[in-house]
Amino acid sequence: MKQYVITMAIRLACLILAVVIQPFGWYTFVFGAGFVFLPWFAVMFANQVGRSGGASAERPELSLERTAPAGDAPDDDAVIQISETSKDDPQA
């Protein structure tokens, strides 16, 4: 936030200098370019504060805990089979 405020203060100074300094010359265009482009740089720098290399991926099944209902022992050898039938299937 501090860096953003400083950049915006420099932008304001560029505007004032571009209007006040006479006669107009090449430096007027430099101050004008600073006035136009400094907001973009200020936002880019403000968004980069606190970033550290990016987020790492985590497998969701490793973060979930498996809990069994009370009284039921978990059966790790159980296999669940699902079969699908359609209305047009003559064997159903």
Q: pLDDT below 50 for ≥5 consecutive residues: which ranges?
A: none
Overall pLDDT: 78
One letter per element, helices H and strands E, the order comes to HHH
What share of the residues lie within helices? 40-55%
| Strand composition percent | under 5%
Content-based structural category: mainly alpha
Number of strands: 0
Major β-sheet, in short? none
Shape: elongated
Instruction: Work out the radius of gyration.
Output: 33 Å
Cα distance spanning the termini: 68 Å
**Count of runs of 4 or more consecutive helical residues:** 3
Short description:
This protein has 92 residues and is mainly α. The chain is built from three helices and no strands.
What topology emerges from the helices and strands here?
Layout: H1 2-20, H2 26-48, H3 60-63
Helix pairs in contact: 1-2
Give structural notes.
The protein is mostly helical and about 90 residues long. It has a domain of about 45 residues. The model has no long low-confidence stretch (mean pLDDT about 80).
